[in-house]
Write a sequence for this structure.
């Protein structure tokens, strides 16, 4: 895992130009942990893992088990329902079913929040719940997608003062 501080520019500057840390996070062949300058480490009691509920994304949550076990952390699985085409009960049922199927870790919980903007939904949740670390699964996007819009990972990294771990498809915790 690469661990990097993310300092030196304002959130607005980072949004417009990006940052070295985000470039490394996007291109590294391994996990990357970005630690904002104002982040404080008081342990990892609660690790929030964001998911879009795809099987690929849920499988990646398993990568957190060794880290969570070392710190006796709770893994909080968070899904932001931005589609608006399902009711909360259906989405919660899907989250519960997939959590049982893919996450065999003893200390876990799950939340579903509805928001048209995934980034704003994650930010809202993190402001309401005390979390020690945020974990996101980063998918590489095509060139046009990368040029015209920031990824959810990039936007979330700009919002808060929590350490953020970016997982990639082939990452493995040791």
């Amino acid at each position: 895992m690469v661990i990097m501080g993310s300092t030196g520019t304002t959130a607005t500057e980072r949004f417009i130009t990006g940052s070295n840390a985000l470039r490394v996070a996007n291109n590294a062949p391994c996990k990357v942990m970005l630690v904002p300058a104002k982040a404080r480490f008081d342990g990892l009691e609660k690790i929030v893992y964001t998911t879009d509920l795809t099987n690929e994304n849920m499988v990646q949550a398993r990568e957190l088990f060794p880290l969570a076990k070392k710190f006796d952390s709770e893994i909080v699985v968070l899904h932001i329902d931005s589609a608006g085409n399902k009711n909360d009960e259906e989405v919660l049922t899907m989250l519960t079913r997939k959590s049982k199927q893919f996450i065999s870790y003893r200390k876990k919980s799950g939340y579903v929040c509805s928001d048209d903007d995934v980034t704003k939904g994650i930010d809202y949740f993190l402001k309401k719940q005390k979390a020690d670390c945020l974990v996101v699964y980063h998918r590489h996007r095509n060139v046009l997608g990368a040029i015209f819009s920031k990824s959810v990972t990039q936007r979330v990294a700009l919002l808060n003062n929590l350490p953020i771990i970016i997982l990639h498809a082939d990452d493995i915790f040791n």
User: Anything to note?
Assistant: Helices lie at 11-17, 20-27, 55-60, 65-71, 88-102, 118-128, 143-148, 152-157. The two ends are 9 Å apart (CA to CA).
